[in-house]
């Protein structure tokens, strides 16, 4: 368990490619009905990156917007952590590429993390802890993926994913009410349930295993992090979850006894954007005015590996 206090989110940002691909369009070539995709996954459309548009492009745009909304100079950033499973290159890191494209010349630390769909939650925890330790004051945490680059568009599981990016700026604060607490876990025995095998171009996925695992570990992690901080589900103002499918989110809410109205989602318009799901959704919810001061927010995600976790944050 990680408990971090006196750190706050001071800016959020997001970005998605212009190209929209509907589930109706995909269903025509997959031997399935768009209604099945809509009803079971909750996905009506997704954004797809262009041939020359990569994770660093999306991440740079989301980061620039988060920095602008934070109202700080880009040179105030002392740490950049990028969560991605689809980096532009094997080396260097996407974080270094984004640092350069943002024009940050202060030699701040920059590195990538890969926990797939749990990546942003892992990266945000690292950012909070490094600031809380006193080593840094301001950090830029980015979640970005372009899964369209590793998707076989002739297979039925192509309908799950879309491309996008989200970012937050974290900063040390004197506010004694601030709270961030997370639980991060993993079980490597699930390594083949969602993977890109060596020498393969595209991902393979066991959809049944994803559903069965997600509907167990997500409510468990949420209950654990709430219990660790002496909260009950009734104290939660909103859940900002990873976007595996609408069925997974509905089942998770049911198991928790959480009104589904508190479970935020954007998979209807963006599908599953992997590492980007949580920060992309967070930015949209914040800009829509759906979160107010002192709200208790829960973040939750499950990714391949398996990796999963949950966090509570006092807004």
Entry keywords:
Peroxisomal Thiolase, Chain A, domain 1, 315 residues, five-stranded mixed beta sheet
Could you walk me through the main structural features you see in this protein, from its secondary elements to its overall organization?
The model has no long low-confidence stretch (mean pLDDT 93). The chain has 315 residues and is of the alpha+beta class. The strands form four sheets. Strands 1-9-14-13-12 form a five-stranded mixed β-sheet, with helices on both faces. The chain has a five-stranded mixed β-sheet with strand order 2-8-7-5-6, with helices on both faces. 32% of the residues lie in helices and 25% in strands. 53% of the residues are buried. The chain is globular. It starts with a strand and ends with a strand.
The gist of it:
The protein is an alpha+beta fold. The protein is 32% helix and 25% strand. It contains nine helices and 14 strands.
List the helices and strands and how they pair.
Elements (H helix, E strand, L loop, with lengths): L1 E3 L2 E9 L4 E3 H5 L6 H8 L3 E3 L7 H16 L8 E5 L10 H9 L6 E5 L5 H14 L5 E9 L16 E10 L7 E7 L7 E2 L8 E2 L1 H22 L9 E4 L4 H11 L10 H4 L6 H11 L8 E8 L3 E8 L1
Parallel strand pairs: 5-6, 5-7, 12-13
Antiparallel strand pairs: 1-9, 2-8, 3-4, 7-8, 9-14, 10-11, 13-14
Helix pairs in contact: 3-4, 6-7
């Amino acid at each position: 368990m990680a408990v971090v206090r006196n750190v706050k989110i001071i800016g959020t940002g997001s970005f998605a490619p212009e190209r929209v691909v509907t589930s109706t369009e995909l269903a025509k070539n997959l031997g399935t009905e768009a209604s099945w995709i809509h009803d079971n996954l909750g996905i009506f459309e997704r954004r797809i990156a262009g041939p020359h548009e990569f994770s660093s492009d999306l991440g740079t745009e989301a980061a620039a917007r988060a920095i602008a909304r934070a109202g700080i100079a880009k040179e105030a950033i002392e740490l950049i952590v990028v969560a991605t499973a689809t980096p532009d290159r094997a080396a260097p890191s996407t974080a270094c590429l984004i640092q350069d494209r943002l024009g940050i010349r202060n030699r701040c630390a920059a590195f990538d993390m890969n926990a797939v769909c749990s990546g942003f939650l892992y990266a945000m925890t690292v950012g909070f802890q490094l600031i809380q330790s006193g080593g840094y004051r301001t950090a830029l945490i980015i979640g970005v993926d372009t899964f369209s680059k590793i998707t076989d568009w002739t297979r039925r599981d192509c309908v799950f994913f879309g491309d996008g990016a989200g970012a937050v700026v974290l900063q040390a604060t004197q506010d004694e009410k601030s709270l961030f607490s997370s639980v991060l876990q993993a079980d490597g025995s699930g390594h083949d349930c969602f993977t890109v095998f060596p020498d393969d171009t595209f991902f393979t996925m066991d959809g049944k295993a994803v559903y069965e695992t997600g509907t167990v570990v997500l409510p468990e992690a949420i209950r654990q992090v709430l219990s660790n901080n002496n909260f009950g589900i009734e104290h939660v103002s909103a859940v900002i979850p990873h976007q595996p499918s609408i069925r997974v989110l509905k089942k998770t809410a049911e198991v928790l006894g959480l009104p589904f109205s508190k479970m935020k989602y954007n998979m209807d318009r963006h599908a599953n954007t992997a590492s980007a799901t949580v920060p992309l959704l967070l930015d949209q919810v914040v800009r829509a005015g759906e979160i107010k001061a002192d709200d208790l927010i829960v973040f939750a995600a499950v990714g391949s590996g398996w990796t999963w976790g949950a966090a509570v944050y006092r807004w």
